[in-house]
């Protein structure tokens, strides 16, 4: 029904539907304090305590470095939980079945989820930037501020793919547990909380298999603080990771759509 209807819409109508659905997804989660408060508060609190208070913010070097690492930590949450948990919960509640019978473009729902994750990521990035610039002595050229922001916001995409793969293959309760088991250990093992040079060598090698490590290195490379300067290597890894998990998610998405 929705596919047939969408064929008769103009591109302006289709764009309007996509944007309204994205706005609905964003404000729905903003009004859920169980999601919005921890998603926005955790990275800013971590950056405040470990970057500004304990990081000797006067020099600006530690606080600048932590913009890349805690920025990566922050943008992972809306992607993983906004996809992983909310898709699983909405499937259980029958919301996905309802959306299949209303006249929506087929991809509007997933597009809205991606936009929601990016908007939350942008808010987190702005909060961290304000803290770093005002209280942490961070001084960067404008192109590096913009480049870091763009890298972090676009960096939600691999974690959206991962979250969707979790959400379409697990129940609502299981998805929350699995997302946490992915989010927190990955953040630590990728060197987002403690620089990898303090880790044993085998843990440093393990970090290179994790997407959070590669996004953090891309982000740090923008501000010339990367431990590994291979921009192409990190980018290729994240692109391949996204494609693989989109393929995994697509198979699970077909399964729940056929029910």
Task: Give an overview in words.
The chain is an all-alpha fold. The protein has one domain. It has 12 helices and no strands. It has helices at 2-6, 11-30, 33-53, 61-92, 95-100, 108-135, 142-154, 156-167, 172-189, 201-207, 211-222, 231-257. The longest helix is centred in the first third of the chain and has 32 residues, at 61-92. The relative contact order is 0.13. Residues 1-6 have low confidence and may be disordered.
User: Ends: how far apart?
Assistant: 16 Å
What's the gyration radius in Å? 19 Å
Shape: globular
Helix-residue proportion:
over 70%
State the domain count: 1
How many helix segments?
A: 12
Which ranges are low-confidence, i.e. pLDDT below 50, for 5 or more consecutive residues?
A: 1-6
| Mean pLDDT reading | 85
Oligomer: single chain
Tally of DSSP β-strands: 0
Percent strand: under 5%
Biggest sheet details:
none
Structural class: mainly alpha
Order of helices and strands: HHHHHHHHHHHH
